[in-house]
Write a structure and sequence with these properties.
Blueprint (H helix, E strand, L loop, with lengths): L1 H4 L3 E6 L2 H5 L12 E4 L4 H14 L5 E7 H6 L2 H10 L3 E7 L34 H6 L5 E6 L3 H13 L3 E7 L3 H4 L6 H10 L6 E4 L2 E4 L1 H8 L4 H5 L10 H23 L3
Parallel strand pairs: 1-2, 1-3, 3-4, 4-6, 5-6
Antiparallel strand pairs: 5-7, 7-8
The chain binds thiamine diphosphate and magnesium ion.
Length: 265
């Protein structure tokens, strides 16, 4: 993401795993200025920052980098406000499907059936569709990505930053301790999320949807959802009814996106 953005970039990071990973000043692991802000305020802080830069005639990229808890739950009001105002910034939500930094509590991004420390028997609600909520703001660009496909993510970050206005990229970020699998399987798990259709890669540019290459195969013939779920401890013991609902939702979502791309709906 930072490689695509280049050095003239400022990151706005609310409380999340990233605020730990970045390290402590002056030994930070991130080579651009990072503004750590209170959990609920990322998009509002970035709005002020972007307006200040633009007023000075500067094109500096303002990127919010926030988790699913900070985006789908606690930051959603500020996020909606910034998108409605047309703030010139890129909002990236990296989604590990729970509150990772505080011990993997469920978030509204946690999928149905997944075990977290606060849903030990599996989550009974479905994942919130933040992408549909963002789409309702009619931004000039929004996309999904996955950490297992870094070149795709690179291209999408470059494109988002080349467009003026509020842009959004939702990145699935497999999390070994939280999803309960061993670290070396991260890329494989991310690819299985896409190949099974549980995560669909696409971009919507000025309202026009394009499914990104790795997801085209999943639309034609997805791998069984069990291939994605079985290696993860968080789905261990999922009951047949929940599995069936998940499968139906995956199929419906793939169909809905394929139809949108074809202009059928
Ligand atoms: C107002 C407020 N409530 C709670 C916390 C504690 N807290 C810090 S990080 C975090 C979890 C963030 O989850 P997410 O946004 O998904 O990012 P992740 O940790 O998974 O990277 C929580 C609950 C806080 N810092 N501020
Ligand atoms: Mg998270």
């Amino acid at each position: 993401m930072l490689k695509a953005a280049g050095p003239d970039t400022v990151l706005v990071v609310p409380a999340c795993c990233t605020s730990v990973i970045q390290g402590i000043y002056p030994n930070t692991a991130i080579n651009v200025p990072v503004y750590n802000v209170a959990f609920a305020t990322a998009a509002a802080s970035a709005s002020g920052m972007s307006n200040a830069f633009r007023a000075q005639g500067k094109k500096t990229n303002v990127i919010v980098y926030a988790g699913d808890g900070g985006t789908l739950d606690i930051g959603i009001q500020a996020l909606s406000g910034a998108f409605e105002r047309g703030t010139d910034f890129l909002y990236i939500c990296y989604d590990n499907e729970a509150y990772g930094n505080t011990g993997m509590q469920r978030s509204s991004g946690t999928p149905l059936g997944a075990k977290t420390t606060t849903t030990p028997a599996g989550k009974t609600e479905v994942k919130k569709d933040i992408d549909a909520i963002i789409a309702a703001h009619e931004p000039p660009y929004q996309a999904t990505a996955c950490a297992a496909y870094p070149q795709d993510l690179f291209k999408k970050v470059q494109k988002a930053l080349s467009i003026r206005g509020p842009t959004f990229i939702h990145v699935l970020a497999p999390c070994p301790p939280g999803w309960r699998y061993s670290t070396e399987k991260s890329v494989e798990i991310g690819k299985l999320a896409v190949k099974s259709g549980m995560w669909v890669l696409y971009e919507r540019e000025f309202g026009n949807l394009t499914i990104t290459a790795p997801s085209k195969a999943a639309i034609k013939k997805p791998v069984p959802l069990e291939d994605y779920l079985a290696p993860q401890g968080r789905f261990k013991g999922i009951d047949a009814k929940t599995l069936d609902i998940l499968k139906q939702r995956v199929a419906k979502n793939l169909q809905r996106l394929a139809q949108e791309e074809a202009g059928v709906c």
